[in-house]
Hints:
By secondary structure, the protein is an alpha+beta fold. The protein contains six helices and 15 strands.
Amino acid sequence: MNPSSCGMAPACVSDEHAVAVSAERLWKVFMDASAMPKVCAALVNDIAVEGDGTPGTIYTMKLNSGSIYKTRVAVCDSATHVLKSDVLEVESKVEKLKSHSIETKLETNGDCSCVAKLKVEYELEDGSSLVPEKEKMLIDGYYGMLKMVEEYLVAHPMAPATVSSEQAVAASAERLWKALLDVPAMPKICAGFIDGVEVEGNGEPGTIHTLKLNPVAGVGSSFKTKLVACDNATLLVKSEVLEAESKVGKLKSHFKETKVESTGDNSCMVKLKVEYELEDGSSLSPEKEKMFAEGYFGVLKMIEAYLIAHPEEYA
């Protein structure tokens, strides 16, 4: 551990730990805050998110102890794997803190390993610095959570990777939801892309939809899904993709979840989450994950354009 202090600047304590997981997998967990109650089940009971993960986003973790750990993202750099957050609320076991921030940097040192470099900056209310033993307590608390994440990833080497994104749509949540559920109408709504639809089922979970795609689109001949969940109250639909031409890699499994949230009388936000496993057990590069999400949002843009051009439909 390397504590340091510079005049009236916040005191700083830093340390690093080897982690038996690739930097890419560990970083993806850092970015998937909603997974923390599952990944750190012994510590985190629930989490609330205000924002989209970019600087300014606030995370409020409800811990199993009954206390709160609340942070605001200051820096999030996926290229360098650096995440820095200001700690807004925490039960401190060391001293009364005036300010408190934590920075984590992940550095690759192998296909399945990395080094996590942690730096904690703090100010005590009385202007002093912590004794070395208490600085160690401060940083060990963060490494305790990191250890839980590492153990989860080691225990779940084939756990699906997740891609999340969101897109604003210039149509009401109700109209868009009705269009999304009207799968037989997709050849009309997405004319030139979808040529036909086959439906096996009554629209309840288990229903299979097979979209016949236009060869000109260059994305294969069919897209086949099985409905897993459809909640009209929360406007959430989730499907397992059974058949699709993949341009990103050979997929072992593939699920797509879409949630529609109202943002106005004629606008909404679509939140997309794709869970996937590659056959070789690896994860996609950020560029390919972006391609994954953009493919689905391309269809969404077609639906949006149709609803704007036909304001009387699905009203």
